[in-house]
Amino acid sequence: MKRILNWASAALATLCLTLTTAAGAQTVDDIIKRGTVQIAVDPTSAPFGITGSDGQPDGFDVDVARLVAKYLGVKLELVPVTSQNRIPYLLTNRVDMVISLFSVTPERALQVQFSSPYAAVGTIVTARADRKIASFADLKGLKVGVPRGTIPDNLLTKMALPDVQIVRFDDEATSIQALVSGQVDALGSSTTALLVLNRGKAQKEFERKLTLVENHFGIGIRRGQSDLLQWLNTFVYAIRANGELNALTEKWTGEKMGALPNI
């Protein structure tokens, strides 16, 4: 009897694992059949993610998500996330994909897989124009704000600069405000944060001081979804080629789309 119970328990565990795996192995046909694509976006990182005048998410990433839904021929369901919970939302099947300033890195690729990049943004250290920062040594004794769990957070933490205090905030918008208010002396963030800081100002109050790395943003999905990945790579290729992606880049950053690599 004990052997039978053990066998039954093992069989049930195998069945549960199979069902869980099947639920995560989503295809393009699954999305089309459902009639809705669920996409995670971060509405706090302008211009890639903002909250529009109607209270709904908007921005560069949201426009890319709209194009995904358009080309799939389905309705779009936007799911607001932060840099901390976007991967958990994806891995627990709460969303189909992530379009949320998702930089392509080997570390993240251990958990998710990325489409070919649709945007490139530099990760930099920003400060007021009158603050003298010409090298990383000049950060000594300063407070540097970063959005928690992001590329600048990881890079600056690994650098372990002596006598530099890294101050972490829950999102980019909060970290930007901390720099404006003087709560921190410098900001580790993206070049898009610098656009936000100087928007509408005749004389640029803030400037790039140091460059950490050049980031490429991809659309993130669960590992093993080869069918969906192939469609997304084709989608990115198409909107690059037909000018739609360049139009969005100019709309939200004021600059033309630069050269982007393929994965």
What does this structure look like?
This protein has 263 residues and is of the alpha/beta class. The chain has nine helices and twelve strands. The strands form four sheets. A five-stranded mixed β-sheet has the order 9-8-10-7-11, sandwiched between helices. The chain has a three-stranded parallel β-sheet with strand order 4-1-5. It is globular. The protein starts with a helix and ends in a 10-residue tail after the last helix.
The oligomerization state is single chain
Order of helices and strands: HHEEEHEHEEEEHEHEHEEHH
The largest sheet has its strands arranged as 9-8-10-7-11
Mean pLDDT: 89
The helical percent reads 25-40%
Low-confidence stretches: 4-25
Topology, number of strands: 12
> SS-based structural class?
alpha/beta
Largest beta-sheet characterization: 5 strands, mixed
If helices are DSSP runs of H or I spanning 4 or more residues, what is the number of helices? Answer: 9
Query: N-to-C terminal Cα separation, in Å?
Result: 54 Å
Could you say which overall geometry the principal axes of the C-alpha atoms support? globular
**Rg (CA only):** 21 Å
| Range of strand content | 15-25%
Task: Offer a quick outline of the entry.
The protein has 263 residues and is of the alpha/beta class. The chain has helices at 2-24, 28-34, 60-72, 86-91, 151-159, 172-181, 191-198, 226-241, 244-253; strands at residues 36-41, 50-51, 57-58, 75-80, 97-98, 112-114, 119-128, 143-147, 165-169, 186-190, 206-217, 220-222. Strands 9-8-10-7-11 form a five-stranded mixed β-sheet, sandwiched between helices. It has a three-stranded parallel β-sheet with strand order 4-1-5. The protein has a two-stranded antiparallel sheet with strand order 2-3.
